[in-house]
Amino acid sequence: MHGADPRLVLGLHRSRHHRDILTAALDLGVTALDTAAPYFGFRSHTVLAETASDLLPRFTLSTKVGFFPSAGGAEHSLDPVRLRLAVERAVRELGREPDTVLLHNPERSLTGMSATGGHALLGNACTALADAARDGLCRTWGVASWDTRSLGIARLEDLPSPDVLMVRSGFLVGIDLLDATAVLRNVWQAGETWGMSPFGGGNGTVWEEFDSRPFLRPPHDGLSRVQAAFRTAFHLPTAAAVAVGTDNPGHLAQLVQALEAEVDTTAVSQYLRALHGQRQS
Predict the structure, then answer these.
(1) Structural domains in the chain, sorted by start
(2) What are the pLDDT digits (tens) for 116-128?
(3) What is the per-residue DSSP string for the chain?
(4) Of 10, 56, 63, 170, whose CA is between 20 and 30 Å from 195?
């Protein structure tokens, strides 16, 4: 078993939702599971309940709301009434209250809005999720953002502070996005930060060309470049947990092994300074 920090979260984006990956996760000590209402063709919650209802109580479960079925496939909305109904539906479909409900990519509805309009829209959406947590539909609430730069249009200091901020993490995240996330966390006074998509959508050729192992403190004999990239993602940005999607128990076991490695934070700081220098040159 592994300690509470750093934590690996099994993400179900692009997952086939097979029971075997859930049982493998539990066997490896991975007890955090992340999904979203639109995953698996808007059937993620239902399929989880149908195939693994006995396993779900053993996971700390997070899900996301903000996308809704439409004739074109999916539409995004921050309407507080729709969000509240989506949380209630998630509880019914899962057969349990999720531990955390995240506002899913709010920037999708904020892009192009004025500061005043964005502040009101995001504020009402956050209040809806905060109220859902207060009413016992989930334990905590938060925001999952693929591009935190767009959230800067709102006066975040006036809005409810999320318990969790989920953001892109890892070497494939640009310095502009890392800086935007740092500002967002500071201004919004968010609780925990979780990382996601540490491999940038599964582009394996990147790790054949880039050796991330120097960012680990020795000894790290036997760890692969992918394992080192995953472990370092906990510091790009600093995060208590990182969600990664896989249907391969072997790959999951390798990532669990990587948690035991120690990151060289000096090397990470030098890397960030180099990124800032490249931007300014």
Answers:
(1) 7-280 (3.20.20.100)
(2) 999 999 999 999 9
(3) ---SSSEEEEE-TT----HHHHHHHHHTT--EEE--TTHHHHTHHHHHHHHHTTTGGGSEEEEEE-EE--TTS-EE---HHHHHHHHHHHHHHHTS--SEEEEE-THHHHTT--HHHHHHHHHHHHHHHHHHHHTTS-SEEEEEES-GGGGGGS-GGGSPPPSEEEEE-STTS-HHHHHHHHHHHHHHT-SEEEEE-TTTTT-THHHHH---GGGBPSP-TT--HHHHHHHHTTBTTB-SEEEEE-S-HHHHHHHHHHTTS-B-HHHHHHHHHHHHHHHH-
(4) 56
